[in-house]
Write a structure and sequence with these properties.
One of its GO terms (cellular component) is ATP-binding cassette (ABC) transporter complex. The protein has about 350 residues and is an alpha/beta fold. The protein is built from 14 helices and 15 strands. Strands 1, 2, 3, 4, 5, 7, 8, 9, 10 and 13 form a ten-stranded mixed sheet that branches. A three-stranded mixed sheet has the order 6-11-12.
Length: about 350
């Protein structure tokens, strides 16, 4: 199954993470007369493969809408939307109260676009393909206190598995990253040491490790470094044929990263009205412990009516019809009840007091 999906993903996750859909398709006379709208977005590399495909599909029936989305990391997406240099951002870590207060264009809304799993991937030459890592072991590896693959604590959960005498090389993000937010949020939830010494955020002071830019950069670092371990969105692990660990969830069950596990985590979590929520270490036997949303970031008061209407209609399509693309790219569909709540939020977006989504 993953092999077929890996072929489907080829070409999406490599190269420069930017998409400019200008001049796609054939326009009709009426469309040529219609006002063309250019939208720019930036942020999450976690959701880039899905946004890439959604934008391409949306353009097929909306030829006057040009959308340029650059996957340059959640930190960049938050910064650029706050400074009003783009029309929308995307982040895998919700904006903080301080960040929201600093935004120059007024109130920012955060709309979940998708959810997925962060895979803990590793490169052990001739090593196990089904490695088990319990929460405390995983935290101590990234804290730098477990430094060798044949450590007794790793071996305890992997009886009968031959682990090499090989140094562990941690690979992590070098840029502001929502994937880092999800991963560090998880480690903070299960490790008091991590919580007190490192904490959570789109950028953290890593105790150890080599940095890579974007999910693609971390995947590349793991591929090229024997003995390495890191974290990437599941699609990047599959695309790069990386081995990924089975983790122990809150109920003590061993679970691999999957769409089912991400959906179970969302279903088990109460989502507040502002949509800012953590899905990590969620209860439930089927919940995968390192799951999270990607949120679209946009201003509730849109200054440009044409751009605002185009953006709101694209996002409305994304949370409805656009979800049919999700599973083929290893993202879970948004829960139906959440989609209904999101649509209501989109209807509050206005230009000069008038709603843009009818």
């Amino acid at each position: 199954m993953f092999a077929k999906k890996s072929k489907f993903l080829t070409g999406i996750l490599t190269g420069v993470l930017a998409l400019s859909l200008v001049g796609c398709g054939t326009s009709t006379p009426s469309e040529e007369k219609a006002e063309k709208v250019n939208l720019t977005g930036a942020g999450s590399t976690f959701a880039y493969p899905l946004l890439n495909q959604q934008i391409e599909e949306y353009r097929k029936n909306n030829l006057t809408i040009m959308i340029n989305y650059q996957g340059n990391g959640s930190g960049a997406g938050i910064k650029q939307v706050s400074e009003q240099t783009i029309d929308f951002g995307a982040t895998d870590g919700p904006m903080t109260d301080e960040q929201l207060k600093a935004a120059k264009g007024g109130k920012i809304l955060q709309i979940p676009l998708t959810l997925g799993a962060v895979a803990v991937t590793y490169n052990i030459p001739d090593g196990p393909k089904d490695l088990k890592l319990n929460p405390s072991v995983l935290a101590d590896i990234f804290l730098g206190t477990i430094t060798n693959w044949n450590d007794k604590r790793i071996a305890t959960d992997n009886p009968g598995v031959t682990l090499p005498d090989l140094k562990i090389a941690v690979a992590r993000r070098s840029d502001g990253s929502g994937t880092t937010y999800i991963f560090s949020d998880y480690l903070s939830s299960i490790s008091p040491d991590w919580s007190s010494k490192v904490g959570k955020g789109t950028s953290v002071n890593w105790p150890v490790g080599i940095g890579g830019k974007g999910n693609a950069g971390v995947a590349g670092a793991i591929t090229q470094t024997p003995g390495s371990i890191g974290y990437v969105e599941l699609a990047y692990a599959v695309q790069n044929n990386l081995s990924f660990a089975t983790l122990q969830n809150k109920e003590g069950k061993w679970v691999a990263p999957s769409l089912k596990g991400a959906s179970a985590a969302a279903d088990a979590t109460k989502i507040p009205d502002d949509m800012r929520v953590s899905l990590v270490n969620a209860p439930g036997a089927d919940s995968y412990p390192i799951a999270g949303f990607t949120w679209a970031l946009l201003y509730q008061d849109q200054k440009d009516k044409a751009k605002g209407a185009a953006l709101v209609n694209f996002l409305n399509w994304s949370i409805h019809e656009g979800q049919t693309i999700s599973e083929g790219l290893l993202y879970a569909k948004l829960p139906a009840d959440l989609v209904t709540r999101e649509e209501a939020i989109l209807k509050t977006i206005t230009n000069e007091g008038q709603p843009l989504l009818k």
